[in-house]
Amino acid sequence: MTTTVNPYGFRRPHLLGIEGLSKPEIVDLLDRAEANVAVSRQANKKRDGLRGRTQINLFFEASTRTQSSFELAGKRLGADVMNMSVASSSVKKGETLIDTAVTLNAMNPDVIVVRHHASGAVALLAQKVDCSVINAGDGAHEHPTQALLDALTIRRHKGRIERLTVAICGDILHSRVARSNILLLTALDARVRLVGPTTLIPQAFRDMGLEVTTSMKDGLKDADIVMMLRLQRERMNGSLVPSVREYFRYYGLDAEKLAYARPDALVMHPGPMNRGVEIDPAVADGPQSLIREQVEMGVAVRIAVLEAVTGNRNASAVESAP
Amino acid sequence: MNPTRRTADERPLVLDRARVVDPSRGLDALGAVIVTGGVIRAAGPEALNQGRPDGAEVIDCSGLVVAPGLVDMRVFVGEPGYDHRETFASASRAAASGGVTTIVTMPDTNPLIDEPALVDYVLRRARDTAVVRVHPMAALTKGQAGAEMTEFGLLKEAGAIGFTSGRSVVTNAMVLRRALTYARDFDGLVCHLPLDPDLAGSGVMNEGDTSVRLGLTGIPAEAESVMLARDLRLARLAGGRYHASAVSTAEAASLMAWAKDQGIQATSAVPITHLTLNEIDVGAYRTFFKMSPPLRREDDRLALVKALADGAIDVIVSNHDPQDVETKRQPFAEAADGAIAVETLLSAGLRLVHAGDLPLLRLFEATATRPARLVGLDAGTLSPGAPADIVVFDPEEPWVLSEADVVSRSKNTPYEGARFSGRVRRTLVGGRTVYVGS
Does B25 touch chain A if contact means CB atoms closer than 8 Å? Predict the structure, then answer.
């Protein structure tokens, strides 16, 4: 299926972030993911790209959709998938990240999918193992497969990414989803706007030349895509935002605010949603919402990424063999 | 009683032959002020060039000054919760008698004003009972606990014109940083009392030879300057509009000059008491001179006056804080802080003018024009089209304040027996006369 080799395509053994990826690399991954959508919709979803391979999902942070999405993607490719969550691991007993990495590495996995609460932890782990590593979210740094699945969802609906106006709204400060999306969307020449209270948008994004506004009205004007971010509960009660009701009043996406965007604007959310905090249930479940489709695209993207990194790792191993 | 609810058939009013002072236009000249429909139509030397309006009531103001009514940015009122000390009605009558046409009320009541519904309550009570304009500030943090910011957006929509720590202090720098950052989104003014509570400790007056002689625990000047220095850097970091609610020391004056030089969006107010009194006035444990921040040394007073004259300090406030017998008739250390000063704000301020320390124009800039701009009110000006909030006063009339003169419901004035030159003759709010002096 992926026998045609794109010389400018994605050739890396790891996917640690969107940062540094070229436009052809990103497009290559999106194209590969696109091809997986149909397979995932047919009755027999099983393929054999990773048959006999071992995939470890190492999640230091609780996750429902990302972990199950990676698990399903691996299983559809025929891999043996092992889920390790912190609750049942030696990390609880005080083992360091690097010791965990070395231990898992000794079991000769082919790919490790990692989520960690500390920015940079996944890259650190990648240095200590001999297999491919996929970043499933590290702190407030990056969540590359989320950005890829968002881009795939957008591309399937709008036919393109370039020149689309994408408003990313809410807690930009703590969001790895926002960072990966900003990098990917700007790399594909979309126009990215950041909307939220000043307490939740680092000044540096403005200095980087992105459009930043505190007004949903200004931010959503002529937007093709409205991407909402989750606001963590501990940030709602006076530390960064005074209250849920004030946040919803100014930044919660309801029909009134969505009307500022283009009539054909589409609404996205990486989940899990806080209904009534950053998004009105009527909008979340409304005709402009792509939120459920994002989940579907997640599996297609993760199949493509798993296949790509393990394939690239094997190829480079062959090349470097004596 | 509501100054904004007027009858349309009021007669036009001409304040003729007055010395017209309007800092908003740099005006200090002989002329007239014409008021129709509650609004200023003309003010200055050329005001009568178009003649007098038909049927106008003309008041001869020879020897008198006509100026914008004062805007007092820091007024504690007892309502709700401490109505026996001061109500909106009594505070507003006291204000009117002193030429103050707008009072900005502090949220430190019971309950504390930290909810939009409570702002609404204050505005309704004031509308129904007050004779001057009342604009509430809301609490900066929930319960003034210094931990979580209040709903700046919803509070502003409800009518709060700023956010203040009131009598309390936000010791957590992160909380103040975030409040300053968040307030930017609503162009909110963040008012904070720079007084380190740990350094102030159990102090009850300025720390120095007087406190040592009296055997009272002192509050060092550094309790103010340490906190203010921190605040100004946080304002620079966050980029919000910071206002020091009340400063009292020479070092605070130089810090504010530094901040202005750095281009930091920071302003400050000095209480009128701290421009006209000093720690010596505490005398024999006189609790009416116990206030927060405390009265400081004469050197501090002189530095504050100078900083006010050159603009390093922006605003003069009354820091009006009514206290009753229960809280004041106590041993000095156990008495409450606070002094009433709204009704004597102008007369006491004129002392600085008569002493040659402050031009009259600057006095009104600091008590009317500047505070109105800081909180975004169409006040502190005699510009045509502005609401006719006006004070008419005799700048020379000598008088001595006796307790019987005190209008406020509480009597804790530090100026009892004080001699003043200059007294209010008439106060207008929205063109309506709300006070006429004898």
Answer: no
- Mean pLDDT of the residues in chain B: 96
**Do residue B407 and residue B326 come from a single domain?**
no
Residues 176-215 of B with CB under 8 A from A: 178, 181-182, 184-185
A238:B182 CB<8 A: no
Q: Is A233 on the interface with B (CB under 8 A)?
A: no
Beta-carbon contacts of residue B432 (< 8 Å; ≥ 6 apart):
B3, B6, B10, B38
Residue B7 falls inside a structural domain: no
Would you call B409 exposed, middle or buried from its count of C-beta atoms within 10 A (0-12, 13-18, 19+)? Answer: buried
Shortest CA distance to A122 belongs to which of A131, A111, A133? A133
Query: pLDDT band at residue A209, thresholds of 50, 70 and 90?
Result: confident
**pTM metric for this prediction:** 0.93
A161 to chain B, any CB pair closer than 8 A? The answer is no
Indicate whether B234 and B249 sit together in one domain.
Answer: yes
pLDDT tens digits for A171-207? 999 999 999 999 999 999 999 999 999 999 998 998 8
State what percent of residues in chain A have pLDDT above 70.
93
- At residue A10, does pLDDT exceed 90? yes
Residues B306 and B418 reside in one and the same domain: no
Answer whether B170's CB lies under 8 Å from B197's CB: no
Q: How many CB atoms lie within 10 A of CB B198?
A: 10
B10: distance to nearest CA of chain A, Å?
Answer: 42
On whether ipTM exceeds 0.85, the answer is yes
Contact A242, B150 (CB under 8 A): yes
